[in-house]
Amino acid sequence: MSLRIVVTVKYVPDATGDRHFADDLTVDRDDVDGLLSELDEYAVEQALQISENSDDDVEITVLTVGPEDAKDALRKALSMGADKAIHVEDDDLHGTDAIGTSLVLAKAVEKAGYDLVISGMASTDGTMGVVPALLAERLGVPQVTLLSEVSVEDGTVKGRRDGDAASERLEASLPAVVSVTDQSGEARYPSFKGIMAAKKKPVQSWDLSDLDIDEDEVGLENAYTTVDSAAERPARTAGTIVKDEGEGGKQLAEFLASQKFI
Amino acid sequence: MAEVLVYVDHVDGAVRKPTLELLTLARRIGEPVAVALGNGAADTAATLAEHGAVKVLTHEAAEYADYLVVPKVDALQAAHEAVSPAAVLVSSSTEGKEIAARLALRLGSGIITDAVDLEAGDEGPVATQSVFAASYTTKSRVSKGTPVITVKPNSAAVEAAPAAGAVEALSVSFSAQATGTKVTGRTPRESTGRPELTEAAIVVSGGRGVNGAENFAIIEALADSLGAAVGASRAAVDAGWYPHTNQVGQTGKSVSPQLYIASGISGAIQHRAGMQTSKTIVAVNKDAEAPIFDLVDYGVVGDLFDVVPQLTEEVKTRKG
Ligand SMILES: Cc1cc2nc3c(=O)[nH]c(=O)nc-3n(C[C@H](O)[C@H](O)[C@H](O)COP(=O)(O)OP(=O)(O)OC[C@H]3O[C@@H](n4cnc5c(N)ncnc54)[C@H](O)[C@@H]3O)c2cc1C
Ligand SMILES: Nc1ncnc2c1ncn2[C@@H]1O[C@H](COP(=O)(O)O)[C@@H](O)[C@H]1O
How many Cβ atoms are within 10 Å of A165's Cβ, its own excluded? Predict the structure, then answer.
């Protein structure tokens, strides 16, 4: 038996840097340092663990849709231990929204061949957390999402989803789309050996024509949503800051009372 | 007047507060038609009517509890066919966003998530969003299909607006995908008796500075004196001092209360992402340079073990 896992990873602007919008109101990806979305490292980690715990022959492909620099994200995932990578890159993809991105990912996953797709819980730039559900809808396979624990055995994926009201145990047959949270287990650091090995691992590049996607199905002009304006939030007016000299708690209470909280 | 579908979040018929907020927003765009599914669906009608629902479409079936997400998408799609609404509103829980996304895809529509405000516009509803850890505010529209929009809790006031709230049975035929992901077990979260984190008017959070699970009693005591929910930073959660369900931030809950009190929290960007839209922000931290102080309306530089208990005592005294 063999198990083909595709991990979807996104290249995002560094959250600790100065993120902003470009003139066309898309996320500026040129002037800002980017990296593999930290939340997708958890997806790579779970793929590696499933592989390590399996008697089957497991092949892990990492897939990204993004600009040239997105290769950095693939390299990082390969150095963690994934086997090969696919980069979907096309100028016409600029400004594609979640609905369009899920189309490209679905076509790419189908072309690559898969038994299991593993995604992160959300991208750290858009933070929508919808692409895995969209991908499952498009592929017509079960969605087993937001798992803090996941395992695969005998063609079945099982996991635990900690929701607002309850913690649920979930189960579905493969093929399926899974997403994992940052509670699923720390992601490993690439080893020196891993980094060296990654340099030799294959990275395939596909464009829209390779995926039979029309340019009018994706991109900013064909997006399903329109951003009309983006304004920097005015800095909060400087607050009052006091040093506690024995009365800090009382002073704070006085403030809360003045604001009618008590 | 155009109808607006509102997906009802309820527990055995008890409607959750964010749904009532959706009804307030829906009335700015058209006439709210609520969709309530699963056990106790019809019991939601009275509350929904009180808050403006002209109609309540209900459907009970075991599938809603036994399988993940898709049965609810099937039902909303059926409701969309029955009503042809001007928009569909869902509250921004993790499940709400997944339901909304799949529905949008089926309808050939765009989706906007985590709106913090919504108003009618010439070209359809305009959603305000707070992005990049709330450092930017954007206004967006859905430009294709029926707008599907998820709204964050605490984005609007709950308003009474009595309407007919006529209950109608919705007929739903489940898709082949509906039974794809089985829920084989469910452990309900134990109630702490405190308000729901995302719905609370006041949130009192503790971070690494709290320095131990047992010390969280200090944070809880302050929360209880104010009738607040308790939050925690990821550092406190990762250390095992407080449950993950209470984590505030990018990978925890996003909260937008009237008052947020952070103690022993530095204010990392990922934490700010989940609390920066709070109306009033207060912090206690012994490091005057902590980034959280950039956000505060009132800050105390000091040891939380001195300041917080004194505050709690003072709140109790003042409340009598
Ligand atoms: C992908 C990703 C997602 C993340 N998601 C989240 C998230 O959802 N939520 C979240 O919170 N973080 C998140 N983080 C982690 C975040 O980057 C910070 O590490 C975390 O918020 C730090 O928590 P803290 O402020 O409690 O701890 P620290 O940064 O260590 O700060 C502790 C503070 O306590 C103060 N202190 C110590 N002792 C006392 C005392 N006795 N009295 C008063 N003050 C004292 C210190 O001066 C310090 O400022 C995420 C990180 C990543 C990479
Ligand atoms: N451009 C992309 N390329 C690859 N994977 C993506 C992309 N966008 C989103 N994803 C995947 O979908 C998950 C959720 O993303 P989102 O819905 O944008 O928050 C991410 O954690 C990724 O696994």
Answer: 15
Residue length of chain A: 262
Q: Which residue of B138, B198, B293 is in closest CB contact with A229?
A: B138
Instruction: From chain B, pick out residues whose CB is under 8 angstroms from the CB of A99.
Output: 104-105, 110-111
Nearest-neighbour CA in chain B from A199: distance (Å): 32
Residue A89 domain-assigned (yes or no): yes
Residue A81 lies in a domain: yes
List the structure tokens of A83.
């086997």
Residue B112 pairs with which residues in a beta bridge? Answer: B149
Q: Which tens digits make up the pLDDT trace of A26-72?
A: 777 776 788 999 999 999 999 999 999 999 899 999 999 999 999 99
pTM: 0.95
Q: Give A183-237 as a DSSP string.
A: TS-PPPPPPHHHHHHHTTS-EEEE-GGGGT--GGGSSGGG-SEEEEEEEEPPPPP
The answer to whether residue A25 is domain-embedded is yes
Q: Does B2 touch chain A (CB under 8 A)?
A: no
What is the rounded CA–CA span in Å between residue B226 and residue B318?
11
Tens-digit pLDDT profile for residues A122-137: 988 877 899 999 999 9
Residue from B105, B148, B297 to probe the interface with A (highest A Cβ count within 10 Å): B105
User: How many domains is chain A partitioned into structurally?
Assistant: 1
Supply the CATH number for residue A8's domain.
3.40.50.620
The answer to whether the CB atoms of A21 and B299 lie below 8 A apart is: no
Q: What is the extent of the structural domain holding A125?
A: 2-222
Interface of A with B in 128-147 (CB under 8 A): 128-130, 133-134, 136-138, 140-146
Asked if residue A16 is part of any domain, the answer here is yes
Q: How far apart are CA A40 and CA A60, in angstroms?
A: 14
CB–CB of B224/B283 below 8 Å?
no
